[in-house]
């Protein structure tokens, strides 16, 4: 089959021949119709994270063409994989496939696994979001941010506040955010203080990291949760007074989905699929697609993300 690997990405024709994956017991082979770009792909491709010359890509949508499990051949699915998605075929454990409703295109389907699973886990498993609470979602116009906004609004009766650059606040609102703070011209701490009548938010979904850490704690309600899932704005907090955590009785937690156990990923996928299937079918959950590239143009697609041009996800058609 053809695939794009870490080393072939920069070549004039990045499609290289690699063996079609085997299909172990309890697994399926998916003929990939689309995949989507993630920051990890960029980190792998630029060598920021060490990885062998693996096939890039974390998520696919497509059609099951071989099955060693109860999943039927011909079933339309999406799936989260740890590498291997920028390819014509991918093999996935059957308990990790998300059935794709007929109404969801393959392009949109490819945008579901990473962003929505991450957002679902962060909001509900780690962040314990409850009805009538307020959640602050940083990077609200990105893949995870747009998914988190939709999931929070669809599954709970909550107020959603996003942050984004000025050009993307309207997109955040159109995606369902109740308030969209423009972090370039507004101080999100002051805005949250005003929106919440000095109460602060109950949950913060953050992938900016160090540069927001103190301000996040300042914007948090007592007993609130901060879920850290990325460090786009730095990893090291130089000086921090631990007293803030005690005073706020804050729960600061974080997670990386990729290294989680197979059992965890399967449990998350199963619960997510059960809770959201009808919402996707009805269009109440509707992945935001920023643009689509053909697989050989994967490098240009990555540059698009690197330059922060995307609102929502970037699709690669296979
Ligand atoms: N831990 C996990 O399991 C997990 C899983 C999936 C993703 N992630 C991480 O989550 C993050 C978001 O992923 P994504 O797919 O949503 O990426 P994305 O689509 O690129 O969205 C991220 C958005 O954040 C904003 N941003 C970037 N740098 C910023 C900064 N320094 N300060 C403020 N805003 C900034 C940008 O929008 P603006 O133009 O508005 O600034 C950007 O579009 C990445 O770090 C990714 O690695 C973690």
TrEMBL record:
One of its GO terms (molecular function) is NADPH binding. Residues 7-316 form the Enoyl reductase (ER) domain. The keyword Acyltransferase does not apply. InterPro entries: ADH-like_C, ADH-like_N, ER, GroES-like_sf, NAD(P)-bd_dom_sf, Quinone_OxRdtase_PIG3. Keywords: NADP, Oxidoreductase. It comes from the Bacteria. The keyword Transferase does not apply. NCBIfam families: quinone_pig3 (TIGR02824). PANTHER family: QUINONE OXIDOREDUCTASE PIG3, QUINONE OXIDOREDUCTASE PIG3-RELATED. This is Zinc-binding dehydrogenase. It comes from Nicoliella spurrieriana.
């Amino acid at each position: 089959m053809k695939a794009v690997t870490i080393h072939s990405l920069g070549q004039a024709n990045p499609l290289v021949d690699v063996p079609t994956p085997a299909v172990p017991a309890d697994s399926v082979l998916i003929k990939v119709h689309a995949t989507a770009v993630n920051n990890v792909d960029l980190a792998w491709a630029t060598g920021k994270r060490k990885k062998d010359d693996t096939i890039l890509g974390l998520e696919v949508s497509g059609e099951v063409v071989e099955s060693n499990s109860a999943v039927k051949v011909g079933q339309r699915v999406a799936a989260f994989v740890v590498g291997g998605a920028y390819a014509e075929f991918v093999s996935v454990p059957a308990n990790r496939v998300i059935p794709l409703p007929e109404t969801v295109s393959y392009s949109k389907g490819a945008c579901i696994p990473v962003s929505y699973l991450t957002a679902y886990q962060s909001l509900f498993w780690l962040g314990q979001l409850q009805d009538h609470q307020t959640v602050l979602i940083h990077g609200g116009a990105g893949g995870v941010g747009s998914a988190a906004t939709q999931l929070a609004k669809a599954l709970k009766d909550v107020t959603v506040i996003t942050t984004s650059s000025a050009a993307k606040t309207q997109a955040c609102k159109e995606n369902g955010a109740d308030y969209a703070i423009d972090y370039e011209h507004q101080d999100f701490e002051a805005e949250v203080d005003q929106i919440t009548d000095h109460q602060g938010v109950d949950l913060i979904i953050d992938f900016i990291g160090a540069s927001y850490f103190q301000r996040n704690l300042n914007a948090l309600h007592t007993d609130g949760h901060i879920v850290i899932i990325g460090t786009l704005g730095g990893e090291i907090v130089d000086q921090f007074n631990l007293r803030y955590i005690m005073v706020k009785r804050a729960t600061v937690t974080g997670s990386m989905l990729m290294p989680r156990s197979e059992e965890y990923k399967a449990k998350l996928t199963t619960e997510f699929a059960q809770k959201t299937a009808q919402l996707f079918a009805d269009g109440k959950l509707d992945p935001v697609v920023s643009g689509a590239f053909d697989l050989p143009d994967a490098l240009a697609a990555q540059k698009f993300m690197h330059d922060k041009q995307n609102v929502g996800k970037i699709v690669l058609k296979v």
